[in-house]
Protein 1
Amino acid sequence: MREILREIGMIARALDSISNIEFKEFNLTKGQYLYLIRICENPGIIQEKVAEMLKVDRTTAARAIKKLEIQGFIVKKEDDHNKKIKKLYPTEKGRKLYPFLKREGDHSNQIALTGLSEEEAAMLFDLLQRVRKNVEIDWELVKKGNKREY
Amino acid sequence: MREILREIGMIARALDSISNIEFKEFNLTKGQYLYLIRICENPGIIQEKVAEMLKVDRTTAARAIKKLEIQGFIVKKEDDHNKKIKKLYPTEKGRKLYPFLKREGDHSNQIALTGLSEEEAAMLFDLLQRVRKNVEIDWELVKKGNKREY
DNA sequence: TGTTTTTCGTTGTATTTGCAACAAAAATGC
DNA sequence: GCATTTTTGTTGCAAATACAACGAAAAACA
């Protein structure tokens, strides 16, 4: 059995760790960059969807986003037609930070792909997307309380 | 720019989340399974190396391993020739759990690889290993306080 | 040899993370 | 229309996570 997931876990933890250290200079604490980037790229998104995108617990996303709001990186806006939801938008302060976050991510991508040909990188991306789609089905099931049989 | 790392992040968080939920029935709390599996597969390893393998902070590993010891899943043993290190070994209780942890991991691997041919799976594993090796260089640098320039 | 640096482990503290449980609005079903 | 289920958001609490800082052993070096 090839341990695909161990490799993925190592890569994910290493890069998350690096990002957290690097973004401290912008006063972003652990994990916040993930949420801010998603909100900048999807203005008007609600936090439930951010949690789904990131595959984190709803309550974790709720608190991370609340903190971004308190710090003035994003705002929550009511919706005219739906009293339940709160749409999320970056503020000027948040938008200004975005290019730095993007650049860091791009750099990490580049480092990660060092030594891979263009075709290999394309292949990897395709394979990872397929794996991700497989995995998110189980994630949603298990998160809703269903049990996997194996 | 293909967002390889976002896919990897999603996959890693989703599967970690699933494992944490599934291992609760063995009284393992968040993350503990990672350490126990590594110690079972590398008896005599020291915690510094476990942290390196997993790409987690040394102090995080220290506390997770201490808890495994208190719960009786592993033991720490002194080394005859080196007073500083403590070698880690699974106990009977820990060894008994291992097959269940392994089976869960294998199942997740299988789910993840659904729809991929044997060749694609092999290709993915190879590419991921290369990415991981690229990334761990930066991780070790940044963890030691060095700054990445980009 | 003696000095300096690196490795390894620990604890204090602040913060994130996530499960449980709740509430209210919206969507669905009949 | 009305009852039921799903969606969305929140808070209480327990626990993991990681930075800083320390100490001691080992390794490197001069």
Protein 2
Amino acid sequence: MLDERKLAVLRAVVEDFVNTNEPVGSRALADRHRLGVSPATIRNDMVALEEDGYIAQPHTSAGRVPTDKGYRLFVDRLSSVKPLSAPERRAIESFLAGAVDLDEIVARTVRLLAQLTRQVAIVQYPSLTRSSVQHVELVPLGGQRVMMVVITDTGRVEQRVIDGLGEVNGTAVNDLRSMLNRAISGLHLGEVPDAVEDLPAQVPPEHRQMAVAVLSVLLESLVERHEEKIVLAGTANLAAVDFAASLRDVLEALEENMVLIRLLGEAKDPSMLTVRIGAENFHEGLRSTSIVSADYGVGNQSLAKIGVVGPTRMDYPGTMGAVRAVARYVGQILAGQ
Amino acid sequence: MLDERKLAVLRAVVEDFVNTNEPVGSRALADRHRLGVSPATIRNDMVALEEDGYIAQPHTSAGRVPTDKGYRLFVDRLSSVKPLSAPERRAIESFLAGAVDLDEIVARTVRLLAQLTRQVAIVQYPSLTRSSVQHVELVPLGGQRVMMVVITDTGRVEQRVIDGLGEVNGTAVNDLRSMLNRAISGLHLGEVPDAVEDLPAQVPPEHRQMAVAVLSVLLESLVERHEEKIVLAGTANLAAVDFAASLRDVLEALEENMVLIRLLGEAKDPSMLTVRIGAENFHEGLRSTSIVSADYGVGNQSLAKIGVVGPTRMDYPGTMGAVRAVARYVGQILAGQ
DNA sequence: CCTGGCACTCCGGGGTCCTCAGTGCTAATT
DNA sequence: AATTAGCACTGAGGACCCCGGAGTGCCAGG
């Protein structure tokens, strides 16, 4: 049904359309790509491609434009990830090298990815679920309040103020701190709930209320709010594009963090590049965008995702190359921290 | 030169133009505002206003549009800050009340402000320079590394990993921690450099290298990187506006945090509302935007700024009311934390 | 000093025309 | 059977023109 040449035509259509942003006609194709056949032949192939839904005409007597389905085939079978150039790789390395803490690593990564792809970049903070507790700190703040700081081995620091504990006693806090650290430091976060279950019983009754309050906040902050932090950059790059949906819709979608997190999370093939094209994104405002995402992590455990959002008409091989490369470098930097 | 009526005309021009986004003519003014004079008279006034540079015509035979100078006069003398409605105030309160930590307070504040004003909101994290040290924590991470966490009384937590200390000895770290806290906890950040100056001398020589390294990172993180954190929301609201400069330029300007920080920082009258109109913003991309900003803080000490960026054609009284109200509420919440 | 009247200006919407890129079809060629 | 040349057809969009109407500046009279 789709012989080699028809596929070549589809590839050519996608490539030309991405370059020119104009419907591509049979003559232009014959000229620019060495397909070895006449425009008329190409037209016949185009009819076949159109019948199968890979390309479409904006109107009669216009050239063809790839459909979502056409891009999908292109990404799956007609293209390969384009590796970055050596200068680009060096730029990544030097750009990320200077970061002093996790916040800065993430901030630099997202700006870097936006610059490389000239699109909107998204970086998710390393998930808490896969990390383990490095240390728990309790600091009396005066009054009835205590600040809890949890430090994980992925560099993330979670902080919470706990209020209304009744009188806060310095030594009681110290006891609780060392008890907590003995119980859970080094533990994987998933193991924390079990590990602290019977701690309150070991606390003298007069401080049990405080212990319970602290533990409930601890569990809550580690388990419930775990993946929600993401950072964006490069929204200005959207202004150049003209979307089918309004730019406003796209910007609105990008501000809804939960939507982005869900979209990033839906990778089919973990630890590989995922490309979601056009209507494959369930979200209304992102119907005319594509999302290229990848996992990053230390070793072969995935910590979180990074990704790029751009028009469906995007340079897939190049974008995929940039996302993959940046994901790898972030993993390395994180491992070195 | 500018009698009462001319000022009334200018006010009417600004108000109508903000409402309709179309040049306003003399007839429309006479109809909609009870100025008590005929269109012809208004035309004469308009000529005077135009000669003085307060309004301008996009082209002959069009109505008038306020200039930056016109908006400036309007803001300074012709309008008053519009207080929020009771439901709006309640909404603010309930929206901010549920925040559990500083990050969430800031995140909610910026979204709230964006929603209230239907423009781009900016919130700067509480400055470190005005806060004082609550507690310093040092956590050995294994290897040659130590994590330092500084907790301030404004709820901010700064973290840094310090590497290459040679062998890290647990008790040495403990000693250094308690020495540090004795020396600086409770101190205003500005006083920290002096207070730690002679600490290394008190450390046993074999651990002095570590102490020096820790102190230098401490000073660096507190002094050098102090104001740089800001958060944006509501960029989608820009899509509805048509700017003289391209939308892209505006979005780009908004991504340059340093630019925004500088603009927010340039308040004329501290602890008051500041309005910067059009070309008063030195930055190219923001030539056709106005910025309304205010300080927020606890008691009467200012901790940082919040602000709103929108088209020069904005509802100044309403925006100023929202910014002022949100600034006050954030201050209260922060004081309560 | 204000106002009605009037001639003038010019933007913007609507209509028409025309060009031209690109198509689909048919018949000829390989 | 596949490819190609030729050709009539289609529709978007640019150029052009026209015209209505909002709005102006100016003048003369109240």
